[in-house]
Amino acid sequence: MGVQQQDPAGPGARAHTLLEHLGGAGNVLSVSHCMTRLRLTLRDRGPVQHDAITALPGVLGVVEDGTSYQIVLGPAAVAPVTAAFEALLATPQNGPPAKPTKPARAVLRRIGNVFVPLIPALIGCGIVAGLSGLLVNFRILPGLTPALAAVSGGFMALIAVFVGYNTAKEFGGTPVIGGAVAAVVVFPGVAKVEAFGQAVAPGQGGVLGALGAALLAVGVERWCRGRVPGALDVLLTPAVTVLVAGLVTVYGLMYVAGEAATAIGTAATALLDYGGAAAGFVLGGLFLPLVMVGLHQALIPIHATLIEQQGATVLLPILAMAGAGQVGAAVAVYARLRRHVDVRATIRSALPAGLLGVGEPLIYGVTLPLGRPFVTACFGGAFGGGFVGLFSMLGDRVGSTAIGPSGWALFPLLRGDHGPLTTLAVYSGGLFVGYAVGFAATYWFGFTAEQLARYGGPDRAEAPDPAPGPPALTG
Hints:
Layout lengths: L10 H11 L6 E6 L3 E6 L7 H6 L5 E5 L2 E5 L5 H11 L14 H13 L3 H19 L7 H13 L1 H12 L4 H12 L7 E2 L2 E2 L6 H20 L4 H64 L6 H11 L4 H5 L1 H16 L4 H15 L4 H11 L1 H22 L4 E3 L13 E3 L2 H27 L3 H7 L20
Antiparallel strand pairs: 1-2, 2-4, 3-4, 5-6, 7-8
Helix pairs in contact: 1-3, 4-7, 5-6, 7-8, 7-9, 8-9, 8-10, 9-10, 10-11, 10-13, 10-16, 13-14, 13-15, 13-16, 13-17, 14-15, 15-16, 16-17
């Protein structure tokens, strides 16, 4: 693990270098990105120069998970590098399939890929909604608040269409057909339809209904493609797909998805009302391992469902405490390993992102390579989550009006039951607990005797007999 230096090369040069180390364009089957990672599906891992990739400036870590090869670049770099990477790719060639991953994990990852592209819009609209709420609470600029409500609410009113489009794209269908079928979920005219003895409500089922409708459309489209003659395919396949998937959505899927969405909202509320601190402790403590393997994105549909139903997701502020534990652990590493110049430089560069809720640089650059600090960071997240969960059980629930950021970046999106000051106090208290426990647990229990012998004590400038360049960390 070395110092994460600024990379003087542009996105094009970085993408070209990565492609060379990955075995060339013919070895890349697909490419996408989330907020921090370049996500690749590779034909063969043999040609991949893993050590060379991890040593590149700007590469914060690599995650290998079945068919997915994920290169952590950070929030500022990942989008331009991905765009340059896609421009370099040639048409994929046929070849032996990549090593399969576990089916459940693969499905969760693909569902996450449906929602990850929506996060920037969710964040932007959530912040505008928060601003609108502040203006209403303080009775400022009353003429502007309807316009802000329209700006923030327009996307959420049509989110089903975007979910349907991305679902069809991710699972191999025609994206616009997936969007067209999912649009049925939010179309006001469905209120005139009766199913299961009651009128269908526009928006019933929300994002879950849109996801299911688009998946159904992909299945119907694939069935048609293999049976409809080529001359009629352009007419019959879209018509049959929209008709069959649309009718099933209206007369059955929206009802089922609506019941599932209601169950999710009821379960989340009951979990915090009755589980309180214990539920928060478990959720906060287990979130970092999910981030480590990239499966935290699979929770986005649950967050989106809660936002649709209740106006905010009560789970995100609790899960955000995992990042607080990570920050506390990183500060403890900085204080304890005073002779390790490389790790301290990495912490200095990655800590601002960690405070704003982007935890991957600290995970892959600091706590995970060291071993024990990753575990003690999870304890910090658990206690922070327990703190927020305790207040939720006492009636001071804290939620987020959008999905995406955490840490300090979540403050503009917070919404609670007892006004902004109480909400800010509860969330700030959770962050403080996460920082403190993550720091204390790491400082006292986060290192092996060998690590302390090599890197503990005064820094190089103060040490009378500084050690030579340290070997790789173990632990």
